[in-house]
Structures are given as C-alpha cells and as structure tokens.
Amino acid sequence: SLLHPPGTATLRYDDGRLTASGNAPESWAIQARQVAPLLPGVREYHDEDLRTVSRADLITHLNRISFFFESGSSTLSEAELNKITPVKHLLEDLRQSALSSSGGTLVVEAIGDADPAGPETMKFLLATARAHAVIAALGGVDSYPPLTLSASVEPTSFAGQKRGGTKGLQNAQRRVALLVTSKPLAGRADSAP
Predict the structure, then answer these.
(1) Is the distance from CB of 115 to CB of 134 less than 8 angstroms?
(2) Cα 66 from Cα 175, distance rounded (Å)
(3) What is the pLDDT of residue 71?
(4) In whole angstroms, how far apart are CA 177 and each of 24, 38, 187?
(5) Which of 149, 153, 155, 176 is the most exposed place for a label (fewest CB within 10 A)?
(6) Which phi-psi region, left, alpha or beta, contains residue 182 (left: φ > 0; alpha: ψ -120 to 50)?
(7) Is residue 103 a contact partner of residue 118, using CB atoms and an 8 Å limit?
(8) What is the rounded distance in angstroms from the CA atom of residue 156 to the CA atom of residue 43?
(9) Helices 26-35 and 84-99, interaxial angle, to 10°?
C-alpha cells in the first residue's frame, strides 16, 4: 500500500470512496491528499474528519510538558504516570512528521532537575535518575525512530546555590522537562565539521 496512516488515523474504503479520520500529522494529511486520488479504484478522497497538527504545534506542546517528582525520589507517581500515554501519542505524531521530512534529526531531551538541598553529587545523580525514569516510561531511547530521545540534567541545578524559599520553586526543581530541538543532517554543506 502506498498510503500508510499513522496509528492515530484510520483509512476506510467503500465503493471507490477513501475516507481518512482520526488524528494525523499535517505532513501525512498533505501526502494523503496527493497520493489517494492516484490509487487504483479510488474515485473520491475525503478527510473532513481528519484532525491535523503541525510539527511546530507538536514541538510547542511537548516543550510545555513536565513530570514532577516527590522530594528525594526518582519514581514517577501514579498522577505523573497518567501523563505518559498522551505524551507517547504526541511523540508518535512527531515521529510520523519526522519520517515524511528531511529537515534534520529531532532530539527529544528529558532534562532532569533536583531538590534544592543536598550535596551537588547527589543532586546530579537524582536529576539524572529522574530524566532516565521519564525516558524509560516513554518506552526507551529507541522507541520513536527517527527521533532521538536522550536524558540530561538542568545545568543551572549545579552551578552553585539556587534561589530558594518558595514552594513553587522547589516543585519546579523536582521535575523533568521535555525539550525538542532540531539538529541539521550530518554531511550537509552548511553544517559544521
């Protein structure tokens, strides 16, 4: 088949009419509109019930997501685990978008942070463990090829004493935030050696 819908979309064929519904990356919807009329037996293509989202919208949405942890813990609570499935759907949509584009590699970083108190080494280890816990809950680093998933730590966490005092700041320091960035393809004339 020339037209493979993402897992969040459905194609239905009925007597010459191909209908797409569900959710799909904008790039897939554009490709479907171009390819569907060329398929043997397809006289009509309809996608009025197909909801699309652009790559930029997916990245913006993912960049707003944070997972919060209890003080001193690198285990995701039940409430935070409930965020995993919707994030997996967003990552799958972004993966589908990346498959149909040659705009470089998308990197999804889980950036860990730690509690404000404690030795720097322990804070670094806790932040790292939190980032890895989120990546593992999302399925692991190789779950969404060609996306690259990685774990890192918030550099400002270990640059000396943090401002402290407010509960909101402490909660912000006990989190893992997602950050999606694009890296140019290797070997391109405009990329650095």
Answers:
(1) no
(2) 6
(3) 92
(4) 25, 43, 30
(5) 155
(6) beta
(7) no
(8) 58
(9) 50
Q: Which amino acid is at 143?
A: S
Q: Please give the Cα distance from 52 to 189 (Å, whole number).
A: 33
pLDDT band at 181 (very low <50, low <70, confident <90, very high): very high
Report the alpha-carbon distance of residue 111 to residue 74 in Å, rounded. 13
Q: What burial letters (b/e) apply to 124-155, b meaning 16+ CB within 10 Å?
A: ebbbbbbbbbbbebbeebeebeebbbebebbe
More confident residue, 94 or 78: 78
- Distance from C-alpha of 90 to C-alpha of 25, rounded to nearest angstrom: 10
Indicate left, alpha or beta for 191 from its phi (over 0: left) and psi (-120 to 50: alpha): beta
- The 10s digit of each residue's pLDDT in 28-59 is 898 899 999 999 999 999 999 998 888 888 99
169 contacts: CB under 8 Å, gap ≥ 6: 116, 162, 163
Nearest to 91 by CA among 120, 134, 48, 128: 134
Structure tokens at 96: 């589908």
pTM: 0.72
Two tokens, residue 153 = 């730590």
- For the residues 145-166, what does the mean pLDDT come to? 68
E strands present in the chain: 9-14, 17-25, 44-53, 66-68, 105-112, 148-153, 175-183
